[in-house]
Design a protein that fits this description.
Length: about 500
Amino acid sequence: MSNYRIQGATGEWEVVIGLEVHAQITTQAKLFSGSATAFGAEPNSQVSLVDAAMPGMLPVPNAECIRQAVRTGLAIKAQINKYSRFDRKNYFYADLPQGYQISQLYHPIVGEGELLISLDDKNPDADTKVIGIERIHVEQDAGKLMHDQHPTMSYVDLNRSGVALMEIVSRPDMRSPAEAGAYLAKLRSILRYVGSCDGNMDQGSMRADVNVSVRRPGDEFGTRTETKNVNSVRFVMAVVESEAKRQVALIEDGGQVVQETRLYDPDRNETRSMRSKEDAHDYRYFPDPDLLPLVLEDGFIEECRASLPELPDAKRARYVGELGLSAYNAGVLTAEVETARWFEALLAATAKAQGKGEADVAKQASNWLLSEFFGALNKLSKDLHSSPIGPEAAAELLALVGNGTISGTIAKQVLEKMFETGDGAGVIVEREGLKQTNDTGAIEAAIADILAKNADKVEQYKGGKEALFGFFVGQTMKAMQGKANPQIINELLKKALA
């Protein structure tokens, strides 16, 4: 799929990438306590005795976290392990009050799965690749150190301590920054469709550890580094490129890549060393003695499967196959769950307003949404979530275009006024006299005037320069202030120019 190479002084190098994505599970409580998980709360205001590791406190698994992990596994076609177990990962850090993290090493809840990615937005089926997923395990998050609150001390905020995470570990199957970006974007999209993670990377509820190594094309894997807590698709791609180039330069200068943990500095677009990478046995993993193994029943797994929504790939295929949309339009409409939901609400309302089937109005609705509506929102620096009008109001506007009450040109003006005033399309059209005219006499008079003023262009048209027909249409629409029926203009112009 990718021919991406780093051009070094001694030849070409191939980059090998694997991602470990930490996704905060959508739930009102933490993994082993009932504490809240709301973003932006006052420091240490969402901490139970369990989260603070007070003596004698015992963890109790949150069933909803287990359910969401299973649903996520099913969405990526992964093996669901009926038997899984929690382990203690032992290490000391100031934001880890227990002195260990409860995770899953030996027996994760989800086994091998896969993700289909594409690098071509215009034709998502043209250039695809399957990225293997090794496992998903459930674990608790650590707290957070705050270094900017005091000149000589760091403060500890335990609000995140015990928050439920899914760690989604890919195979080292990606070979370019673009593939890594496409994988992370697709994974985020699926999590948001499923509802198991909100995907808000800017709030830390989804972040990626980026594993990068380089090799001569076809050689054995090289030594990898891990860049921690990268919080955007763009930064993940930047990490891959900058770290791969650093490793190539290091090797070609006679140095050696060491396995280590690194941090990314977006201001300087470079990674820097954080600490040497410990191997798994240094964490002294052992089964958590306070937690029984998880044993899932078939009925529970099937209930999770039945609760899944239509996922982006299936939805995109349906939009193309049943609604007749282009692959590009279908890809854009299904990339984000909010866009797909908005479009489907618009589609249903438009079909109802026009008394047609959804397939009959799908192209009109999708083209208008992706061009006119998104363009108008961009001008206001808004998105669908903050849109001043909803799908029902938009469908009313499309119905007025569909039944010939207004032209597409007038519809743009009406949309702007809907945003400004909050009034419905019908009210605005009536109030401002924007109805499309079918008065053939008035249109014929306008055409005659335009042809008389542009006799030279009429001669050129009759001489074979047929592209001028669009000029005459535009001039007629301008003369009629955009209110003339375009179909009637075309018919009368052809007759006048014959």
